[in-house]
Write a structure and sequence with these properties.
Layout: H1 2-5, H2 13-25, E1 32-38, E2 41-52, E3 57-64, H3 73-88, E4 93-99, H4 103-111, E5 115-126, E6 129-139
Parallel strand pairs: 3-4
Antiparallel strand pairs: 1-2, 2-3, 4-6, 5-6
Length: 140
């Protein structure tokens, strides 16, 4: 996932635990992290973060282990999280983004019911590579 997001994998289990602990201690309204499990194994997660109270909207991002790509986990989990955030948490809009070249991410967002809202030309830079940033939205 680093290729399109710039989010580095954790170097150690301790680094991951520290990140989780800090995130839980500083959780904002509606912020959540959901584990994606299959057959007793963790295959990914979805986070909800950057809640904007003025617009009643929140951003989501999904990570799936590479050996679990193309199995529908992101789409299925994202559908459940979108429903939870809009119905149980009463959030009006859920937003997400993807690099234009990240076909798998785009498909998962669209299959889950998110709609392309805008394109930021050269809006995403990861390392020395620049991508068009596609912004998606889901409204209840």
């Amino acid at each position: 996932m680093y290729r399109y997001s710039g989010w580095n994998p954790y170097a150690t289990v301790e680094d991951a635990e520290r990140f989780i602990r800090t995130t839980l201690e500083n959780a904002a309204p509606h912020a959540r992290c959901f584990a994606i499990e299959y057959a007793g194994e963790l295959v990914g997660n979805i986070g909800a973060y950057n809640y904007e109270e003025a617009n009643n909207r929140i951003e989501v991002g999904c990570s799936i282990a590479k050996d679990s790509w193309n199995k529908g986990f992101a789409t299925e989990a994202l559908k459940a999280v979108l429903q939870f955030l809009t119905e149980s948490e009463n959030v009006s809009a859920v937003v997400a983004w993807s690099a234009e070249e990240n076909i798998g991410s785009r498909r998962a967002l669209e299959k889950a019911g998110m709609v392309l809202e805008s394109v930021e030309k050269d809006g995403l830079t990861v390392g020395n590579k620049t991508y068009n940033k596609l912004n998606y939205v889901y409204r209840r």
